[in-house]
Amino acid sequence: MPYREYDQAGLDAQYNNRAIVPDHAAYIDSWATRSAEARRHLSVDLDLAYGDDPRQRLDFFPAPQRDAPVLAFIHGGYWQALDKQHFSHVAPLFVAAGIAVAVLGYRLAPAQRMTAIASDIRAALAFLYRELPSLGGDRARIHLAGHSAGGHLAALAAQTDWPALSPELPPGLVRGVCSISGLYDLEPIRRSYLNEVLALDTAEVAALSPMAHLPAKASGPLLLAVGGAESAEYHRQQADYTARLRAARHPVQAIILEGRHHFSAADALAEPDSPLFEGVLRQILAPRF
How many of the other CB atoms lie within 10 Å of CB of 41? Predict the structure, then answer.
């Protein structure tokens, strides 16, 4: 099933990040090690339940002061792998900057279709909004970040009509989004080897591709980032989504993280001198009007 200029093998290669980065396991192991250390050294409320499934949990790292802005992080893993526990290491820099961090877990494919996975993220954010007064965060300043599949889910959450989901939720529940190595067009995913697990159909592709829809007006700006050494399709995804947003006059900033591949691009969010960390910090701390 060819796609654009690719035959099947070529398309599969574009999205096979573990093959592109042979030492990917070292990055995943590093995330787990650094995350365990973060949980040892920071205050954290672990496994707050927003649903009945064991994966419908989030970890909340409070900032030193109450009423802090909040960054909610969504992990990647092609909607079928990894866990929130791999990404606690995102928290220390933001907590030190006075920003609380929530790391979201969610159910995975193939046990769940992507529609249910997207619903988990919305449920987690609604739960966070309701609970932030007791947790010590400012529910008027919830920002999102996600990597890879998490970037897709973050962009998708920005399109949510929150009052339609529940009347007490505000239109501007999400104040800004950062998507790292995000996936905005699911059609190549449907046509690739990944669909052996995901089982996407054409209706889900149309409903769940951020490229096909605009963010809610109240969802705030988007910061999109892709590693300079990522595949051409990842660059195409970011460029096409950026163009779509700019054509609609939605505020968006797109950056290329030079020299970084799919896994090291995620690391940039936890590095104090990276343009990604600095960009997310500016987005969260910008004055509200």
Answer: 10
Handedness of CA 243, 216, 65, 51 (dihedral sign): negative
Q: What is the pLDDT of residues 11-36, one digit of tens each?
A: 999 999 999 999 999 999 999 999 99
Token digits for 276?
A: 């990604």
pTM, rounded to two decimals: 0.97
Length of the chain: 289
Give backbone dihedrals phi and psi of 152, rounded to 5 degrees, phi first. -60, -45
Instruction: Please give the Cα distance from 160 to 218 (Å, whole number).
Output: 10
Residue 37 sits at φ, ψ, to 5 deg, of: -65, -40
And the tokens for 109?
Answer: 């494919």
Structure tokens at 83: 């866990």
CA angle (98 as vertex; 57, 251 as ends), nearest 5: 80
**25: which 2 tokens?**
């396991």
Q: Give yes or no for residue 118 having a pLDDT over 90.
A: yes
Q: Give me the amino acid identity at 121.
A: I
CA angle 148–282–209, rounded 5-degree value: 30
- Measure the CA–CA gap between 164 and 262, rounded to whole angstroms: 35
SS3 readout for 204-241: HHHHHCHHHCCCCHHHCCEEEEEECCCCHHHHHHHHHH
